[in-house]
Amino acid sequence: MHIEVFSLFPGMFEGVFNASIMKKAQEKGAVTFNVTDFRAYSENKHSQVDDYPYGGGAGMVLKPEPLFNAVESLQTSGKAPRVILMCPQGERFTQKKAEELAQEENLVFLCGHYEGYDERIREHLVTDEISIGDFVLTGGELAAMTVVDSVVRLLPGVLGQADSHIQDSFSTGLLEHPHYTRPADYRGMKVPDVLLSGNHAKIAQWRDEQSLKRTFERRPDLLEHIELTEKQQAYLNTLKK
């Protein structure tokens, strides 16, 4: 996968893209990154990328030509890239969306600042508008980093084990079950006996039930969107009682 980022502050991405899993993903050849200051694509002699909004109002608005020029400068073969606008008005980002984007060969992220975007950017340039939550940041950079991290870790070969992400919270529709490691008894706080039993069937059942219990307690809204097995539904009924 190749990921292109257009930002007014490309230096913000250096630490994130060159550390931890992002660095390992590049070393393994799973992903390549390029971060560009789209100010270079301004047609103004002062490299201006924003202007006052028509009709008046507070703040400045990003002009259309720098971002159009930046995206159109990309030389891509085959399928056109997904062009993603990071914006609080966009679709709420989910694990399902991350899995969808992980199937693409090319992703382009547009990170804006100021009061907003010229509407023609939304209507005629981007394919996706994504929000990471119902709050406003000073720019799209941190949001883009969040989405990129979520997507890249799903690429084949990036994580240590091929199925490491399968049981992640939200991948199954439920929150992930609790985890424990050594020592088995720490200050009187003990690991559940079932995890020490060696009975893999019982361990799998315990993890499934704990995942369902945690979802019921912390994010019951998720249960409205998934189809439960008969055993899961029976256990959920027990929890409700």
Automatic annotation (TrEMBL):
GO biological process, one term: tRNA N1-guanine methylation
Molecular function, one GO term: tRNA (guanine(37)-N1)-methyltransferase activity
Main location per the UniProt record: cytoplasm
GO CC annotations, alphabetized: cytosol
Keywords: Cytoplasm, Methyltransferase, S-adenosyl-L-methionine, Transferase, tRNA processing
Keyword Transferase carried by entry: yes
Residue positions binding S-adenosyl-L-methionine: 112, 132-137
Top EC group: transferase
EC number(s) stated in the UniProt entry for this protein: 2.1.1.228
Cellular localization per UniProt: Cytoplasm
Reaction catalysis annotation: guanosine(37) in tRNA + S-adenosyl-L-methionine = N(1)-methylguanosine(37) in tRNA + S-adenosyl-L-homocysteine + H(+)
InterPro entries, per database record: Alpha/beta_knot_MTases, tRNA_m1G_MeTrfase_C_sf, tRNA_m1G_MeTrfase_TrmD, tRNA_m1G_MTases_N, tRNA_MeTrfase_TRMD/TRM10
tRNA methyltransferase TRMD/TRM10-type domain mapped to chain residues: 1-224
KW Cytoplasm (keyword) present: yes
Family statement: Belongs to the RNA methyltransferase TrmD family.
Complexes and interactors: Homodimer.
UniProt function note: Specifically methylates guanosine-37 in various tRNAs.
Protein name per Swiss-Prot or TrEMBL: tRNA (guanine-N(1)-)-methyltransferase
